[in-house]
Amino acid sequence: MLLKFVSFALCLSFSLGFVQEIMLYTEPDAGGSGLIFRTKEPDLTQHQFILRDVKSFCSRGYWRGFSGVNYSIAWSFNHHSRDGELHCENAELPATMSLRYSGPADASTPSVSIYSGTLGTITGNVERTFTSISETNFGFVPTWMVITGGSSWTGFANEDFTGNSTCFTSSYLLWGFDLRNIEVRSIVKGCDARYGSAYYDEDASMGFGTLGTITGNVERTFTSLSETNFGFVPTWMVITGGSSWTGFANEDFTETRPASQVRIYCGVSI
């Protein structure tokens, strides 16, 4: 009974969300003087006297530091906690002139944020956050996207909600997507089969790599009950969300491997 009660409490806490924050300390293990940020900071010039002495930090949420003001030039650090747990690290802080979390402060808010980054820092420069049903005319083609609140969104290649579309979804309160190979010029809340969208999420991914990089080249991600005809024999697989999947040697869902040939890593058969 106690175990069931604890599980219920954890699920309730997750659904309530969390506020994004970062705490910087002048000594290891969160010691010494501290500086707490719960706001986006485009210019940290006035805080340099303490930032240069930072030896440890803790954070909740998606935090990015930049070497230039107004979230520009290049990343100085990247620290994230998508589940609301407090993640701490003993490390000095590289030269940082601006700092922000991704999306709204409350991670339980259903939203989508887009960024006009560059090749050197795809999460930098302009950030626009939306909570409405649909949006278009962003003023730029996004390089990065963050969704919050466990929401899902469909992005379209054209500004009039037409063209190739992609469904962006996640079971986490915070999740980011690299858009450098996906054009998004308009977006609607939710995903619908009528759009015929490709899916981009964290539930199950597989890749066609090479001997030198088994996680590289093509990645295909699935959330449906079954899939076949991949177009290649995978060299790497990732499963997420606590899910489980059975792989077959043949395309007609026949011939699983004998138990003696199965290796288990963290509950994943490969």
Concise summary:
With 270 residues, the protein is mostly beta strands. The protein has helices spanning 2-16, 48-51, and strands at 21-27, 31-37, 56-68, 72-81, 87-90, 98-101, 111-115, 127-130, 134-136, 144-148, 152-156, 165-169, 174-178, 186-189, 198-200, 204-208, 218-221, 236-239, 264-265, 268-269.
Question: Can you offer a commentary on this structure?
Answer:
- There is one protein chain.
- The chain is mainly β and 270 residues long.
- The strands form 5 sheets. Strands 1, 2, 3, 4, 5 and 6 form a 6-stranded antiparallel sheet that branches. Strands 9-14-11-12-15 form a 5-stranded mixed sheet, with no helix packed on it. A 4-stranded antiparallel sheet has the order 8-7-10-13, with no helix packed on it.
- The chain is 7% helix and 37% strand.
- It contains 2 helices and 20 strands.
- The protein has 3 domains: 17-101, Crystallins (Gamma-B Crystallin, domain 1, Sandwich); 111-200, Gamma-B Crystallin, domain 1 (Sandwich), CATH 2.60.20; 203-270, no CATH class.
- A hairpin with a 3-residue loop joins strand 3 (56-68) and strand 4 (72-81).
- Residues 1-17 form the signal peptide.
Helix/strand layout:
Elements lengths: L1 H15 L4 E7 L3 E7 L10 H4 L4 E13 L3 E10 L5 E4 L7 E4 L9 E5 L11 E4 L3 E3 L7 E5 L3 E5 L8 E5 L4 E5 L7 E4 L8 E3 L3 E5 L9 E4 L14 E4 L24 E2 L2 E2 L1
Distance between the termini: 35 Å
How many helices? The count is: 2
Shape: globular
Query: How many structural domains in the coordinates?
Result: 3
Fill in the keyword field for this structure.
single chain, six-stranded antiparallel beta sheet, Gamma-B Crystallin, domain 1, disordered C terminus, globular, mainly beta, GON domain-containing protein, five-stranded mixed beta sheet, 7% helix
